[in-house]
Design goal:
Elements: H1 2-18, H2 25-35, H3 37-44, H4 46-50, H5 54-69, H6 73-80, H7 84-100, H8 135-146, H9 177-186, H10 193-198, H11 202-235, H12 247-258, H13 263-284, H14 290-303, H15 309-330, H16 334-348, E1 354-356, E2 362-364, H17 366-378, H18 381-390, H19 412-434, H20 443-456, H21 461-477, H22 481-501, H23 509-518, H24 525-530, H25 545-561, H26 565-582, H27 585-607, E3 615-623, E4 634-640, H28 645-659, E5 665-668, E6 684-693, E7 720-729, E8 743-755, E9 761-772, H29 774-794, H30 807-818, H31 824-833, H32 836-841, H33 844-871, H34 877-895, H35 901-904
Parallel strand pairs: 5-6
Antiparallel strand pairs: 1-2, 3-4, 3-6, 4-9, 6-7, 7-8, 8-9
Helix pairs in contact: 1-5, 1-8, 2-5, 5-7, 7-12, 11-13, 12-14, 13-15, 14-15, 14-16, 15-17, 16-19, 17-19, 19-20, 20-21, 21-22, 22-23, 22-25, 23-26, 25-26, 26-27, 29-30, 29-33, 30-33, 33-34
Length: about 900
């Protein structure tokens, strides 16, 4: 009975619609008002409607839409004034219209249909409404098609087919679609959806697809017209609705965007979308509508991937409308940036950003290219003005309403920042996907990929932390403990900054500054947006004190494995205030016990006769077109302290030989300056050089050799961003020469960050060089030996508490300084610079400096021999005699060049 009643309603309204006596507007309005109480009865009996079958629902809904189509605005507004609940039910019916009359083509791809991220993504799609067309619906469609008076065969109105030849009509294949469907159903051909469609002639199938699409567009456009009227009524506050969330508008928009729509609908949508956001942007973008804003942002980005240029341009318009509304109502776009970053991350899991080329390698896909182009167009001022004008929007983009002051207008520079932020996330996601095949081989590139993802998604704390933890795991697999610890510190820093920003914790900005000294990446940029990230499951509310303590403890463990104990002490000092506030005395006792062990380890490192080195550092230069972005760039690599130059050469050669597709790879064995233009264009080159970290207060212009420069003083925070290496050369082009011809070039490298960092290598941002003449090299060599000997005389033996020097190390240095068999170094300097022609070439200042250095060296040797005599026992008397004989022999030899040495000693 319900089915018959629904069909009778459709037939009745069809007769009214096409009756030649009722074609005037006032007649149609009268009929609509006559039938409008039926809509009210339907709202009263919604449970009955939900129990109807799909075909019955469609017939009831088409009846309701036909009544509303001819109804006047006054009657509609009067219906919306009754109650909030009744208004909601009215729009529930409109939602059902959009769902049941959606037109989904068989070849629609994922991007063309409803996304799994949409609110309806977990529901099965309804069957096509033409699969079980009743005779009344068939008649309505047929009559509607006959009433079309627009020109046929034009893409604009959708009629891409021409009238078929009447000879196609036959008893077995009728020309009328209605007759064909009825015949197929009566002969049981239509037992299945596919069989029903396959039974039709291709021309009739095309006509059926066209009618279905036209009807879907008509329904969506009808709903859109109602939304526009409703928006205006809401602005005048003349109806009953939820003004706090405007859920009637948001629910319709979410369904519209999440379902497939024809181009004609997209063309009509965005002027209405713009109008609604102009009137209600503050409400629609408020925190209460987080879910709506996130869904709309996601689907706008999804539309920006479409192949259809018209759809993509309208997606760009939609994004600009969101940007303008955000700035007009909230004077900033940071929150919108968070929402777009979240939705872009979700979209990247559904879009195929790479595809395989014929040679088996990966490249950027068409979807990624189109999304990139859309995001670039979003910040293109001139192009945006043209698009707005082309599509007939009433306002130019990013211009506030007239009554608003000019300072409320968003500037294109801010849009550019937002666009660049999204492009950075897209590029990071693309690069990560392209590296999928070499992740296990090239761990350096894999770590950098995770790092770039973490930085690109930094506006969203949850995503930022997720990628940092992936990076931490990658470093632990490589046994890069210091880098893994830095990742844990960075995660703790994100949590601490969010807590400090909310005044919700035991830490203050001073504690964040202390953490920043350990990990400079912990900056203030994230904290300003952490509170804005409260978007449907993402945000600072999930960041707690316990989670910060968890990652601080992880960092402490990893730094301990790296033997960077000074960092461990700083981290524990951040954990202790938490336990103090909670009066957790057991945990406090453990912390102080750990601190005791840490400080003892630091003392052990300081007192060791062998200088402590936590890592080795190497400069790597890349030369060759096949290296891509790495070409002609230099990096400093941080490796474990047991990695030698040969080890890293072998490792990097293995990595890049497999990635260069048969291209010849050469390793430049020395540290000379490379002239890239003179290298073979078809080959690739690696230049690998060991470098030394530079201490903060180190004098880079000192002539001394640096072999002892890191052995003095206590163990300090080992954070390095400057490195140097020395390269010997001669003016005649040879690498090595005699002392009188040997020059030295000292190269100082400045990296883009400091080690230990979140990655194993940092790019060299600046390089400077100093040159030392042969005589300066000689003076530096002597001063280096003098400083080493003096350091042994003045350094106390802290393990026993007395002030006696270390006997063994003193004997080693004395033997290398004054023993007869090794003192040729000092004598060779005298021979090279204090005799014959070289002596005449020295300036008087250089000559005085060289003599002074030699005299000081001999004086310190004499003092060291006396101290050695007081320290030794009977078993070392013979060795002491050899030292004395060597010193006397050296003094006698030097007196030929410096006669005053006899009187000085």
């Amino acid at each position: 009975m319900r089915a018959k009643a629904a069909r009778m309603l459709v037939v009745l309204l069809c007769k009214h619609e096409f009756d030649i006596r009722y074609q005037k507007l006032e007649d149609k309005l009268y009929i609509a008002q006559l039938y409008f109480p039926l809509v009210g009865q339907m709202l009263d009996e919604m449970p009955v409607f939900y129990n109807l079958g799909s075909s019955e629902k469609r017939e009831v809904l088409i009846t309701i839409l036909q009544i509303i189509r001819n109804l006047d605005d006054t009657s509609l507004i009067k219906a919306w004034q009754q109650s909030i609940a009744r208004t909601r039910l009215f729009f529930k019916l409109l939602e059902e219209c959009l769902i049941h009359f959606e037109h989904r083509k068989p070849d629609d791809s994922m991007l063309m249909g409803s996304s799994s991220r949409s609110p309806l993504g977990d529901k099965p799609f309804p069957s096509k409404y033409s699969d079980r067309l009743s005779p009344a619906i068939n008649h309505y469609l047929l009559e509607a098609a006959r009433q079309e008076v627009g020109p046929q065969g034009t893409p604009e109105n959708g009629y891409l087919w021409q009238r078929v030849n009447s000879q196609l009509s036959s008893p077995s294949q009728p020309y009328s679609l209605r007759e064909a469907l009825a015949q197929a159903q009566s002969s049981r051909i239509g037992a299945s959806t596919l069989a029903l469609r396959e039974s039709l002639h291709p021309i009739l199938r095309q006509k059926l697809e066209l009618w279905e699409e036209n009807l879907s567009a008509a329904v969506s456009l009808q709903v859109l017209e109602i939304i526009e009227k409703f928006s205006g009524a809401v602005a005048s506050h003349t109806i009953a609705t939820d003004y706090g969330k405007l859920d009637c508008i948001t629910s319709i928009f979410m369904i519209v965007f999440s379902h497939n729509q024809p181009l004609a609908f997209w063309k009509a949508l965005f002027p209405v979308f713009n109008s609604v956001f102009e009137l209600h942007g503050a409400t629609l973008m408020a925190r209460e509508n987080d879910r709506f804003l996130k869904q709309i942002a996601f689907h706008l980005l999804r539309l920006a991937v479409f192949r259809n240029v018209n759809v993509r341009k309208r997606a760009v318009i939609g994004l600009q409308i969101l940007v303008r509304s955000s700035f007009s109502y909230f004077m900033q776009t940071s929150r919108l940036r968070v929402v777009l970053t979240i939705t872009l991350s979700e979209l990247m899991s559904e879009v195929q950003v790479t595809h395989m080329k014929s040679d088996g390698t990966l490249e950027e896909s068409g979807e990624a290219c189109r999304l990139r182009k859309s995001l670039e167009e979003m910040a293109d001022e001139s192009e945006s003005f043209n698009i707005f004008e082309e599509f007939g929007l009433p306002e130019k983009p990013l211009v506030a309403s007239n009554e608003q002051s000019p300072e409320h207008c968003c500037t294109w520079s801010e849009v550019k920042v937002l666009s660049d932020s999204l492009l950075l996330a897209l590029d990071a996601s693309l690069e990560h996907a392209l590296l999928a095949s070499v992740m296990t081989l090239d761990r350096y590139s894999a770590a950098e990929s995770f790092y770039k993802l973490a930085m690109a998604f930094a506006p969203v704390p949850d995503l930022h932390i997720m990628w940092l933890l992936h990076l931490c795991d990658a470093h632990q697999e490589m046994q890069s403990w210091a880098e893994a610890a830095q990742c844990a510190v960075a995660v703790a820093g994100v949590v601490m900054q969010a807590l400090v920003f909310r005044n919700d914790g035991v830490w203050s900005s001073d504690h964040v500054c202390a953490l920043r000294k350990i990990c400079p990446m912990v900056s203030g940029e994230i904290s300003s947006e952490a509170s804005a990230a409260e978007v449907e499951g993402y945000g600072a509310s999930k960041l707690t004190v316990d989670s910060a303590v968890k990652y601080l403890q992880l960092a402490n463990k990893l730094f301990s494995q790296a033997e960077l104990h000074h960092f461990c002490a700083s981290i524990l000092e951040l954990v202790i205030p938490v336990y103090k506030s909670r009066r957790a005395y057991g945990q406090l006792a453990k912390c102080h016990t750990m601190l005791t062990n840490i400080y003892e380890s630091i003392l052990e490192q300081e007192s060791s006769p062998i200088p402590f080195a936590d890592a080795t550092y190497y400069r790597v230069g890349f030369y060759g077109e096949k290296f891509g972005k790495l070409n002609r760039k230099e990096y400093v690599y941080r490796e474990a302290r047991d990695v030698r130059l040969g080890d890293i050469m072998e490792k990097l050669s293995h990595i890049y030989e497999s990635r260069l597709d048969g291209t010849t790879l050469h390793v430049i064995p020395d540290s000379r300056q490379v002239k890239a233009d003179e290298l073979q264009a078809e080959a690739c080159y690696l230049q690998i050089t060991a470098v030394d970290p530079v201490m903060e207060d180190e004098d880079l212009g000192s002539r001394r050799e640096r072999i002892f420069s890191l052995s003095t003083g206590s163990v300090r925070a080992r954070v390095f961003d400057r490195f140097l290496f020395d390269t010997p050369f001669t003016k005649n082009g040879k690498t090595q020469g005699g002392l009188e011809d040997q020059w030295k070039r000292r190269s100082v490298l400045q990296t883009e960050g400091s080690f230990p960092a979140l990655v194993n290598r940092l790019e060299v941002m600046k390089s400077e060089s100093l040159e030392f003449s042969p005589v300066e090299n000689a003076i530096g060599m002597i001063e280096t030996r003098t400083a080493a000997l003096r350091n042994e005389l003045e350094e106390p033996r802290s393990s026993e508490g007395d002030q006696l020097p270390r006997l063994q190390s003193l004997q080693r240095i004395l033997q290398g300084s004054v023993a007869v068999q090794v003192n040729s170094g000092v004598l060779s300097v005298c021979t090279a610079f204090l005799s014959g022609e070289p002596a005449t070439r020295l300036r008087s200042q250089e000559l005085q400096q060289l003599i002074a250095a030699l005299l000081e060296f001999m004086a310190v040797c004499k003092r060291a021999i006396r101290v050695h005599f007081r320290l030794i026992g009977d078993e070392d008397q013979e060795f002491h005699t050899q030292l004395v004989n060597g010193f006397q022999s050296l003094t006698a030899e030097l007196s030929h060049y410096i006669p005053a040495i006899l009187s000085e000693l």
